[in-house]
Amino acid sequence: MHRLLPASIALALAAPMGAMADTTSDIAALKQEIADMRAAYEARLKQMEERLKAAEASSAAPATAQAAPPAPPVAAAPAPAANTAASGNSNSFNPAMSLILSGTYARTSKDPSSYFINGFKLPEGAEVGPGTRGFSLAETELGISANIDPWLRGSANISLHPDDSVSVEEAFVQTTSLGNGLGIKAGRFFSSIGYLNSQHAHTWDFVDNPLAYQAMLGTQYGDDGVQFTWLAPTDQFIELGLELGRGRSFPGSDASRNGAGMTAVTAHTGGDIGDSHNWRAGVSYLRAKASDQTLVDPLAVSPGVFNGNTSVIVADAVWKWAPNGNATRTNFKLQGEYIRSRRDGVITYDSGGPMDSVYRVAQSGWYLQGVYQFMPRWRAGLRTERLNSGVPTFDTNMSPLMFEARHPRKTTLMLDYSPSEFSRVRLQFARDRSRVFEGDNQLFLQYQMSLGAHGAHSY
After folding, report:
1. Is residue 91 part of a domain?
2. Which helix (H) or strand (E) holds 41?
3. pLDDT tens-digit profile of 35-44?
4. Per the domain annotation, does 228 fall within a domain?
5. Domain membership flag for residue 92
6. Does residue 337 fall inside a structural domain?
7. How far apart are CA 311 and CA 449, in angstroms?
8. At the top level of its lineage, which domain of life is listed (predicted)?
9. Please, what sign has the CA dihedral across residues 353, 354, 360, 363?
10. Which of 265, 260, 262 shows the shortest CA–CA distance to 282?
């Protein structure tokens, strides 16, 4: 009995010592494993750096060796295929594709077919107003984009309209590596004037664009042409742009001409204020030519045919707030734009015979809107807006006609819910006073669904 007691005590003391030994062995093994991984990573990194240096030296050799002719571009073609095979990704060079599905239900107190913006002459068939009543398939947008080579990328957005027609919203090539902050875009694209103009409809915070855009830019200005941009190498965001275009869209009109029918200049700047605030502001100028452009005014006896120029100035500002820069739970965006348009030319009316007159008018409009995400997935918004039609100036031939300034206005409330980043359902109510002495109550229920790969949206 006396011998068993010491043996038991010794065994009890040895057990934790053995456990400690096992723990020490495990720690040592983990340390060794981490050290092996670090060594393997450093060796792999060194190997990649050596391969990079070799590739740079190889590419520089033809430029320095006079006897060696430059390699033809096709010689580099097999390399991507080898990389693709090595990675096992057979879709590496397929374009990214996306499809935006959208539909609405609209209920209005006034007939949308008789909608017009009082005091503003617009081309025949201008897409303004609330659209059609009842259920309708809204614009469906098919997007395709991909890098073409190390210097260029291409993008196209095809719109499928509710009437089964198809149009090309955008189709352009764009440089990717000019350097020095320079960029060039060529093809068909939305102009970068203002803030909302370059954004696709599915990114708008409301169902429709503001009245100022509808009345003076044909809802959204796009053109065929070329765009040059320069991004300043500064901490503060500064971007300048120049656009030359065909001038096919309102306030211009398509015509056979050798020169540019549209010129636009843009300047934007912005930056951060602390961790929770950022802003952007800018000013833009657009000048477009119109040739034999038919303008309709429901209050006029007959349509007028306009020949002349239109100058448009846009001032825009945006301020965003998100606590500590995290916009996932709550955030607020305040934005506004002021647009001023001046038309100068000759208008022809057919009232018992053609009658020409000098036609000049300065018109303006603004909107201010705020959108608050008060909890994840839920947002509410309010927009107020107003237009000033101005008083047109005619010469003596039109002196019997009397005009006065009109002030269409509109107030809109919005509530939307996003089950995910790829879907959204929106409820919107608007009180629209664009017609003469008539208010229109407009109720919309809208859905938007995004399928496939979709790039990040602009600021």
Report:
1. no
2. helix 4-64
3. 777 777 777 7
4. yes
5. no
6. yes
7. 37
8. Bacteria
9. positive
10. 265
Q: Does position 243 have pLDDT exceeding 80, yes or no?
A: yes
Element (H, E) at 341: strand 331-350
End-to-end CA distance of the chain: 85
Omega before 6 within 30 of 0, i.e. cis: no
Tokens 């609405």 appear where?
104
What are the tokens at 304? 């007028």
Task: Report the DSSP pairing between strands 331-350 and 354-375.
Answer: antiparallel
pLDDT average, residue stretch 428-443 = 92
Looking at residue 227, its pLDDT comes to 98
Give yes or no for a contact between 261 and 294, defined as CB atoms under 8 angstroms apart.
no
Q: Pull the structure tokens for residue 279.
A: 């802003």
Q: Which of 211, 449, 252, 236 is nearest to 338 (CA)?
A: 211
Residues 6+ apart with CB under 8 A from 70: 62, 63
Which letter, b or e, does each residue of 55-71 get, where b requires 16 or more Cβ atoms within 10 Å of its Cβ?
eeeeeeeeeeeeeeeee
What's the DSSP call for residue 186?
Answer: E
**pLDDT for 36:** 75
Decide: 186 and 172 in contact? Cβ < 8 Å. yes
CATH number of the domain within which 382 lies: 2.40.160.10
Q: Are strands 277-296 and 122-123 parallel, antiparallel or unpaired?
A: antiparallel
Question: What distance in Å separates the CA atoms of residue 59 and residue 70, rounded to the nearest whole number?
Answer: 10
Q: Which of 291, 284, 240, 228 is nearest to 261 (CA)?
A: 291
CA distance linking residue 218 with residue 66, whole number of Å = 58
Number of domains in the chain: 1
Specify whether the CB–CB gap between 304 and 295 falls below 8 A: yes
Length of the chain (residues): 459
pLDDT over 80 at 210, yes or no = yes
The CA distance from 140 to 157, in Å, is: 10
**Alpha carbons 428 and 372: distance in angstroms, whole number:** 15
- Say how far apart CA 145 and CA 98 lie, in whole Å: 9
Judged by DSSP in three states, 254 sits in coil
Cα distance between residue 334 and residue 8, in whole Å: 78
Q: What percent of the chain has pLDDT over 90?
A: 60
Each residue's pLDDT tens digit, 260-273 = 999 999 999 999 99
Number of Cα atoms under 13 Å in the Cβ half of residue 310: 29
pLDDT band, very low/low/confident/very high, at 54 (cuts 50, 70, 90): low
- Note the pLDDT of residue 89: 44
Evaluate whether 138 touches 154 at the Cβ level (below 8 Å).
no
Q: Residue 208: exposed, middle, or buried by beta-carbon count in 10 A (0-12, 13-18, 19+)?
A: buried
